[in-house]
Amino acid sequence: MPDYSPDEVRDDFVPKADYLDREFHELEKENLWPKVWQIAAREDEIPNPGDYIVYEIIDDSIVVVRGSDGMVRAFHNVCPHRGTLLAEGSGNAKQFVCPFHGWRFGTDGRCVKVIDRQDWGDRLAKGDTDLAPVQAECWGGWVWINMDPGCQPLAEFLSPMKEMCELFEFEKLHPAWYKSVVVQANWKTTLGAFTEFYHVQTTHAQMLTYTNDYSVSRMMGRHGWISYTGGTGLPVGRSPRLPPKEVPDYREYLFEYAEQFKNDLAAMQTERAYQATQRLRTEAEADTPALEVAGKWGQFIYEAAIESGAGWPDKLTPEYIAESGFDWHTFPNTVFLHPAIEAVLWYRFRPYGDDHTRCLMDIWSLERFAPGTEPKIEHKTFDDWRQGDFPLIYQQDFLNVPKVQKGMKSRGFKASRPSPIQERAVANFHRALRRFLQDPHAEDDLQPEVPVEIPSAE
């Protein structure tokens, strides 16, 4: 098997083997998924004692359950007797009962009944019949699991993303909608399309009328940070890629921003934020300076959230918001966009079963709701994105990704050549992944981030 050295990856060079080789997938099966922290569920999915949800990653099935004591735990979803799966999907159970021979297990994993236990005499030692535990911790409203008992603590694993984002109070967000879709591409191919903004200028060209789209990407240990170069994390403003056009009314950028996010993304903007943006039509004049308009815009959104009872993170500062960026890739398989503060778009990518040519992409539109007003969400899964009534921006991405996967198979394509400035997080991910596959327990020895000089346009 090839050694897939991390030294083969450069900031502007990623070998295509990472996306195409079955051997690479087999290495991930052995050294990535069983040994890395990954999101298994949203805490919203298991709010009550006995609530459980099954998370599957290739050949492993994990049941995540809230116990009678309120604690969240995770176990390998197999009966220790003959290996039968105990649970499917989600539900509520006081005990897990094996459908094959009737062994029973508490929500704390302890075996509470073995049919005809006397048959074994003293052959079953204490703990032999309990469910095999999986490490589970909660952060940001998510349940993270790790099958490796020797892994680093979750807080260390998530650093520095955790410190740079925890004041946003992700744990107080709830799904406005939740969809999953099978994509005809490797999970890393698909993830890569959502780990950079360089593609906006072509794939989502309709956004350029209100988006100053040049971006910058940073290495954050194993993780990646992506934002725009304006310093605020928000790209509002006409793209310099378009012919110059004087727009004396800055409000027009915000109106179009609000309309396109409402219609073309259906996420990263609450309905009350959309309505708050409309206040600018009557409470700000057309010639109001841009900074003043932006200040009123933020004020109106904040006031709407407070008035609704949804609240607002009270420790955020403009400096913290700017430094936290726009988009994070959290190693290995989650991406989230959070500039709206009260509305966050979150993605998870994983192989579709044991098929390295397809992946399952999970999409959560998370919002901050007043307590008791959270909508009841039906999780929908689609075999094809065309079945899912996805808004325009998703459609544009879903059209591209399978073309990338197929195109990389060409003998004329040798390697991916990402931008070392705008797509730096993509290369950083592949370098970090190869290092992790070599030694999951090695300290994260990635080089510290060195500021990148942004070149002037030609």
Walk me through what this model shows.
The protein is of the alpha+beta class and 458 residues long. It has 13 helices and 20 strands. It has helices at residues 17-20, 22-31, 154-158, 161-165, 187-193, 200-203, 251-265, 271-278, 280-283, 290-308, 318-323, 392-407, 424-438; strands spanning 14-15, 38-42, 51-57, 60-66, 72-76, 90-92, 95-97, 104-106, 111-113, 133-139, 142-146, 173-183, 215-220, 223-228, 327-330, 334-337, 343-352, 355-368, 380-382, 415-416. The longest helix has 19 residues, at 290-308. It is globular. The chain starts with 13 loop residues before the first strand and ends in a 20-residue tail after the last helix. 38% of the residues are buried.
